[in-house]
Predict the structure of PadR family transcriptional regulator.
Amino acid sequence: MALDHAILVSLLEKPGSGYELARRFERSIGYFWTATHQQIYRVLKRMEQDGWIDVREVPQQGRPDKKEYSVAERGRDALSAWLREPIEPESVRHDLAVKIRGAAFDDPAGLISEVERHREAHTGRLGHYLAGEARDFGEPPEDGTLDAERELQHVVLRGGIAYERMMIAWLDDVLATLDRFRAGP
Amino acid sequence: MALDHAILVSLLEKPGSGYELARRFERSIGYFWTATHQQIYRVLKRMEQDGWIDVREVPQQGRPDKKEYSVAERGRDALSAWLREPIEPESVRHDLAVKIRGAAFDDPAGLISEVERHREAHTGRLGHYLAGEARDFGEPPEDGTLDAERELQHVVLRGGIAYERMMIAWLDDVLATLDRFRAGP
DNA sequence: TCTTGCTATGCAACGAGGTGCATAGCAAGC
DNA sequence: GCTTGCTATGCACCTCGTTGCATAGCAAGA
């Protein structure tokens, strides 16, 4: 299970509450690992019981108090152990690919609007990534030293960018293919 | 849930037993939707009860008998309805990306062998896809007509090829980045 | 004969993930 | 005063997916 580890990484990058984590999972980390707030609270509770993370009650003004979590020694060890474990290359689940193959037995051209919707979603994400890249990695760090956290975040973001570009190109290929079946057989 | 629909599509492409489906999910369909044989048998049972698919006992010589499933009217309708439903662009789960960002708090260079393993896996898949493409789509159909099933299978396969190429290029990027931290800080 | 291995189907149990719902503090606007 | 909306946390339930195990027919080879 990698949700534990995704949360640990996020907390190492910056301690925060369950609510804040949930919002990070809508951006940043969420680009390559999704989770709802219920999942996050559940995992936080378990990790706290296991001593992987520490809690600190933080009173706030103008809004409800929060529990700020940070990674404890045991959490670091658990993450370290996980990093050393080989994992299987991801198992993919592409609904859209199933739909495309399925459309052969229904109406291929009927899928066009759906594929266009997906294309727009990916274009949006790409724009978002590129804006983030320009903002956070536009200029090299002042002191010129190697910052592992920064460099590794950047290479992951480049992966997201490459993925979205690939998807957009492929969806164009799909659209061109579907288009050949407009009012066809 | 799309496992139902992935199975329906596979059975429309060619009727078969649970065992045969399980093997297809290790190849072909399995490239963009994974499933174990237990999942498949469970779903087949449910879909048969719901009248989505028909069964036929097929005696075999030299091996145990099998149950051959094929798609019934209701199954076609269910697939058709699903094709018309908009779906959300997939939620991604990349363990490796979590690991890469996590490596900033451990030993970045320690990830190199793991990333190399993934690179090999993707290279293998790419070779497999390219061989399949040459075999199944190397030459255009004799009669020159548009075959939706063939064309749509091909465009999905091209997606797989584009994905693997993108991943290999990105993993090279990751390796180059990690390499800068060899025996580093 | 015994083991190994492939074909073929299935159950039981558990854990992960998702949906819906509930609660509560506080601010801003109607 | 009431509603709306954001922050913040959590429970209950149900489904999906995975793991481990079990059974059984038949072939091939040691």
Notes: Chain A has two domains: 3-84, 95-179. Residues 95-179 of chain A form one domain. The first helix of chain A runs from residue 3 to 13.
